[in-house]
## 1
Amino acid sequence: MGFSAAVSMGYHIVIESCHRNSLKCMSVNRWKEHYLNFKVSKCSRQPGRISLSRSEFTEFDERTSPNEVRKEIERCYELIHKLGRGVVYLGSSRIGFNHPHYLQALELGREIASLLDSTTWSGAGPGLMDAVTKGAMEAGKPVGGFKIGKEASQWTATNIHPYLPSDSYLTCRFFSARKHGLVDAVVRSCRCERTAVVALPGGIGTLDEVFEILALIQLERIGSELPVPFLLMNYDSFYSKLLEFLDDCEVLGTVSRGEVASLWRVCADNYEALAYLADFYDRPFSYAKEDM
């Protein structure tokens, strides 16, 4: 069989010539190979269209639709309006429940929820996100989340959280919508709103969120009328190498001296974080460091 074909993202194909009544064709959609078997009749330069099943390209169609993204962002805002703004936690989905950082994050989530009496927000995933969620629930405070179908630590995707009520979280298809939600959850429009961003140890996804929010604060584009505290939890010097790199950036002149330090508070432990937030929001604080 001899043929030549021109293929576009819409799966158009022009068959120059063919001598058999069946054809196996490979197409590429979002870096996946799809093998299609279809019948053709004898033809000469006959334009046609190969239509994949609905399941094959629905996801691509939705991802290219600005209306779908907008609707998901609106659902994020609706959930925030329902549960209230509060403290957003960023952190690893890979750290297990027996790790010291998990236990520290669980304690921090519980104590901050009690101290600020506000909603706890996270990516509603496993790891340290699970720790702060359980901590806030132990404190009896509201919890919300913007889940993604598949976290870095998971082999399979799931839209269902194992224990949170379905009306307390949203499973996002779009990372852009999820990020809109995480940012809006810390916006302060009045002094009665006690919010914060808390960056726990994490990997690529955590660093992506950390620096995106940090840049919004730096450029005064976060949309908050009042300042939002940003805490970097440097458990066991986890972020010390990153801080050294940022110091080198100051020496090279890619950031101004003292600029990064003015945007966040680096905390070595939970006591330091709680003391800082208590002072920031003028809340009563009676913990002793040895209790942390």
## 2
Amino acid sequence: MALVPSSVGDGPVFAEVDMGTDSSAPTVRATVVQASTIFYDTPATLEKAERLLAEAAGYGAQLVVFPEAFVGGYPRGSNFGATIGSRTAKGKEEFRKYHASAIDVPGPEVERLAAMAGKYRVYLVMGVIERDGYTLYCTILFFDSQGHYLGKHRKIMPTALERIIWGFGDGSTIPVFETPIGKIGAVICWENRMPLLRTAMYAKGVEIYCAPTADAREVWQASMTHIALEGGCFVLSANQFCRRKDYPPPPEYVFQGTEEDLTPDSVVCTGGSVIISPSGTVLAGPNYDGEALISADLDLGEIARAKFDFDVVGHYSRPEVLSLIVRDHTASPVTFTSASMKTEVSHKQ
């Protein structure tokens, strides 16, 4: 097994892994993108996404995974002017601009992403900030290689201060999509530390487990390796690599508590994107050097070999002792009975 890095002009580094695959099992080339949002500029971010997607497709990628909140941005360092008991006017204006950078699902940006996936003939997993009225969600969108939007996963548990800007997803958006290149699903950042959510994904048969994140700490790698071993699945974790200059300058945007120590070239997120096999072998990455495309050829035969050892929801489960119930219906704060009655009448007709 060899890691072969190569530079592509002045662009990102592309790391390719030769897994020595078994020719009797399907092989999928997967790429994780490590790159920064163009903050507060969604059209420019979409243009950057297409450039990166085209580059990955040029290397033969069949599946491309982008980081958490790539479209819409991860508001690292901001507190939106919030303290317990008060919110500042500047913080409220900051949220207004962040809300304006988010996208509607469905909407024109989703259509454009679908067109990109179809144009480059790749399965696309994209982190976005979704706007639903005046509530925002940290969301992953899925597209097939024919240019069809497949569905979404909304982050069910934002972490810490994320909870003041993002809503909570419900059980209706934890999909695993069966595709010709494998069963694909996604869990976002620290959701990956929730054992019950992981178990739900395993029960849905996830084979290519995408983990877009904003966590660049070295300890994140331990979580990713554990999930690969626990789930008997490939794990693809994509994070942004960002410098201070990738965000608007102060006073428009301030990194609370650290701004005075930062220069435009200071790294504020070091990446760490990685691809790991079902046996726990690191196939590519982690990369902490800059924006990059990180790729590996996934031998899907590795899944069966790993499950022979440990199938967490199969031969290694004890449902008579331990079991899980997932409430996977849509949770709505308001239900109108007249709408329900109209639906019932239409079904009877």
## 3
Amino acid sequence: MDVMDKEGFAPNICTHNTIIDGLCKKGRIQEAHELLREGFLHGLQADRVTYTILITQHCKQADIERAMAFFSKMVKVGLQPDMHSYNTLIATFCKKKKMKGSENLFEEALSLGLIPTKETYTSMICGYCRDGNISLGLKFFNKMNDHGCLPDSITYGTLISGLCTESRLEEACQLYETMMDKGLSPCEVTRLTLAYEYCKKGDSTIAMVMSERLSFSAEVGCMST
């Protein structure tokens, strides 16, 4: 900023945001804060891009309190957050198993007329599954379909793992079949989870069929142990 002043260039918010973004990507968040304060002293006003950059960086560092502080300030100065900002915060709350916070943000976004995306729903579903509330995860899964958001293999895999954790194997298999019918490829974790659950139940016939179906023949040996 000082160099720009000496060279006769007036700093603007676009230049400011570019530098702040670069500092954040390098993990130099404190320097980004200092630059923001310096910009205020030069009469610059932070815009939605500025706040989004800082919210995203604090969420990456799992500092939800600081991220929410910038989010609140953003709203206070009259800048409406977009769905990207909400998604970033919702995902962080879900990772911390703070589902009440993510629910409040989800409802707030809806009240503002914002449309939840696949990322929004997947974060909520993952959060509920991590928190052991598979029923609410399934509720959001159904809501996701109703709102025209197509779940991907990660969404399906998360629910399948959650259902297996609760020994709801039949429902897990139904979801697996639905996923396959839609042309989605299950990840290795999903394959392992289903094969393991059948092994654990001791249902050797179905376990064998599932193992072959999942191309997971290496694990068939567990049936005989």
